[in-house]
Design goal:
Shape: globular
Structural class: alpha+beta
Number of strands: 13
Helix content: 55-70%
Number of domains: 4
Number of helices: 23
Strand content: 5-15%
């Protein structure tokens, strides 16, 4: 081939590459600018329903808004109301949607409810619409409604469980249409697009200049860039770890809270080790997690701050095991492995230390599952079989680790199939024995088991079956910091759900086909284990919690058990063939994980603040008055929803007598009145 033809072909390839690059830049710029515009438009249209209310009994207040599909749980918002004082309740309304009417459910228990004012305000606090008290009309389970002394009095029926009022003339249009928005702010969005395009073009120019450097300078520059990436990764990792411990230090309070008053009964009653391990709490057993709780309590005087720090340590240990697992699967660690601390130490799971601390629920199963994967990769033969069966047994009995009981028999069935095809009789019998033992372990879980969905009014299936996949999608979106029931939440959630499902199925098939133990087959097994575990957890949670409404999908406590699935996605990305696509996907994953929690979202900040302030105030008032109702009323915060049911006063007296838990911090006068 002549030099001129060769030059012409290279020139043609260069032009084609340039066109593709420019097209990619334009698409990226349009996407980012569109995203910025969408977020700005939503903020501009954000509205809140605000109401001043007082109730004679504590309960749940719920607002429904009809946006075209009638009243349903998906289009509603709930707030827990404390009795005894006037409170301003703020309910976010769906942005960018015209609201046809609003339904106000004043409380879910028999009560006298008083309403002073009700209005709609925007993000800036400006009042958009005021509702006269006469616009509230009773619908059901209300005996009497009248206005006196400037307040609307609503007396519910004696056995009311769902009293309802309808607000007349409560329709409200979107504050700004797309056309009006574009007319006002299109120049700003176009400016963002141009800036992003210039940035991308500049980066491309810089990259082309780097490529044209001679080999020696290029290698030196690569080393410098690699060093900068490594140092930045280490610095960010340290920041993530410091943030993790700072949050635990700042937001944990030494007082038993909510479910702890129930499962700590085993400690109040001085149960033995087997009784602790075998204890059922809700749909799962407590397992080794409750033994861990007892050990911490024994050494700390039932100090729940000590338990919170221990939980933080368990999660950090799980992260360390994950890093070791990552090195075993190869290639060597690089800057993108900052993703592992970002996944494991996400502050979105703040409820595991700031809310109800339950090591059995998430932290301990997370560590056990990480060890399970590491053992599967590192060990072979009898040692691996025995270690996996032990870890499987512990997982089955410890919180939501129970789903490992469905995964382990499948793994050993694949092992038996491979041994049979390879005519390995010893391996076949070992695998079949492991299948039998794992099934017996799973069966033992149900000895003495009682079905307990842990919520009132549980129903399966619900009539609106599509709420199940929606619930799972919202759970996964929450991990990524995408809050609320919005189109963006559903898009993000369903994309991740599709990816998790595909990875679980594809890698399960690969496990069944792979005959030889290699790094690739080990990676297949780890990805299958991690993604399948999280999928099973999410499906189970959706089945159990959909009756509470779609907003409950974004509870912080679910995050910990979704960590394995996201770690599995990362392991899959690392195992992709080296090239531009792999680098792009890993960089995008790291950027997305950083964006998910830097900064912590407003809803999470408000949630963690509500917990720490409520606990602190309740504890301070109770230590002064030793009256549960007074403390609850003063703090506007319940430490337990039904004190009589759990014999809260007797338990508090026991803690006082033994100088445990909140009485560790009490002044001497409180301990010896």
């Amino acid at each position: 081939m002549s030099d001129s033809k060769l030059f012409g072909r290279k020139k043609g390839k260069y032009r084609m590459s340039l066109r593709i690059t420019m097209m990619a830049f334009i698409i990226c710029a349009l996407f980012v600018a569109g995203w910025i515009g969408y977020k700005d438009y939503r903020e501009l249209n954000k509205l809140y329903f605000v109401i001043d209310v007082e109730t004679s009994a504590s309960g749940v207040v719920q607002v429904f808004y009809d946006v075209g599909s009638g009243y349903n749980e998906a289009d509603s918002y709930t707030i827990t109301e404390q009795s005894g004082s006037w409170q301003k309740l703020i309910f976010p309304l769906p942005p960018s949607k015209a609201i046809r009417s609003i339904r106000f459910d004043p409380i879910n228990v028999p009560s006298l409810v008083r309403i002073k004012n009700a209005w709609i305000e925007n993000k800036q606090g400006a009042v958009v619409k005021v509702f006269p008290l006469s616009d509230f009309k009773k619908v059901q389970q209300i005996d009497k409604m009248d206005v006196s002394e400037g307040a609307l009095n609503i007396l519910t029926q004696k056995n009311a469980g769902d009293p309802i009022t309808q607000i007349e003339k409560s329709s409200i249009e979107s504050q700004c249409s797309w056309k009006d928005y574009l007319a006002k702010r299109s120049s700003i969005i176009i400016g963002y697009g141009l800036l992003i395009s210039l940035f991308l073009i500049g980066m491309s120019y810089f990259s082309s200049k780097v490529q044209r450097l001679n080999a020696a300078v290029g290698e030196k520059l690569k080393e410098v860039l690699a060093s900068i990436g490594l140092v930045s990764s280490i610095a960010l990792s340290l920041l993530v770890v410091v943030r993790w411990w700072y949050y635990i230090y700042s937001y944990s309070v030494n007082i038993l809270f909510w479910d702890q008053w129930d499962f700590y009964k085993a400690l109040f009653d001085k149960k033995n080790m087997w009784e602790l391990f075998h204890m059922q709490f809700g749909p799962h057993r407590m397992g080794i997690g409750l033994i861990f709780t007892k050990a911490i309590a024994s050494f700390s005087g039932w100090n729940t701050r000590a338990e919170d720090f221990a939980i933080g340590g368990v999660v950090c240990l799980a992260m360390a095991v994950a890093l070791v697992l990552r090195t075993k699967l190869g290639p060597r660690l690089n800057w993108t492995d900052i993703a592992i601390p970002l996944i494991f130490l996400t502050p979105n799971q703040y409820e595991i230390y700031a809310g109800t601390s339950i090591p059995s629920h998430g932290a301990v199963p997370l560590l056990l599952l990480a060890l399970y994967c590491l053992v599967w990769v590192v060990w072979r033969g009898m040692a691996r079989c025995c270690a996996i069966l032990v870890l499987n047994f512990l997982l089955i009995y410890t919180g939501f680790g129970v789903f490992a009981g469905m995964i382990t028999p499948c793994l050993f069935c694949a092992e038996a199939f491979h041994a049979h095809r390879a005519r390995d009789r010893k391996g076949l019998w070992l695998a079949l024995t492991a299948v039998v033992v794992s099934l017996l372990s799973a069966g033992s879980f149900f000895v003495g088991y009682q079905f307990s969905p842990a919520i009132e009014g549980f129903q399966f299936p619900v009539r609106e079956w599509w709420h199940y996949p929606q619930f799972v999608a919202l759970m996964l979106a929450n991990f990524c910091g995408v809050k609320g029931i919005t189109p963006v939440s559903y898009v993000a959630g369903f994309l991740i759900l599709s990816l998790l499902t595909a990875l679980a199925l594809i890698h399960m098939v690969r496990i069944s086909r792979s005959m030889i133990e290699t790094t690739k087959s080990s990676t297949d097994a780890v990805v299958a284990i991690l993604t399948t575990f999280t999928l099973l957890f999410c499906i189970n949670t959706a089945i159990g919690r959909v009756p509470l409404g779609l907003p409950s999908a974004q509870a912080s406590r679910y995050i910990t058990n979704m960590i394995p699935g996201f770690f599995g996605i990362y392991i899959w990305l690392v195992a992709l063939p080296h090239g531009v696509l792999r680098r792009f996907l890993l960089t995008a994953a790291v950027a997305g994980l950083i964006a998910a929690t830097f900064p912590l979202r407003e809803a999470d900040r408000n949630g963690i603040k509500w917990l720490v302030e409520g606990k602190t105030k309740w504890k301070a008032v109770y230590l002064q008055t030793e009256d549960i109702e007074t403390a609850t009323r003063a703090a506007k915060f319940p430490i337990y929803p039904a004190p009589e049911r759990t014999r809260l006063k007797q338990k508090l007296e026991y803690l006082k007598k033994e100088k445990l838990n909140l009485y560790l911090d009490a002044p001497p006068l409180q301990l010896n009145p």
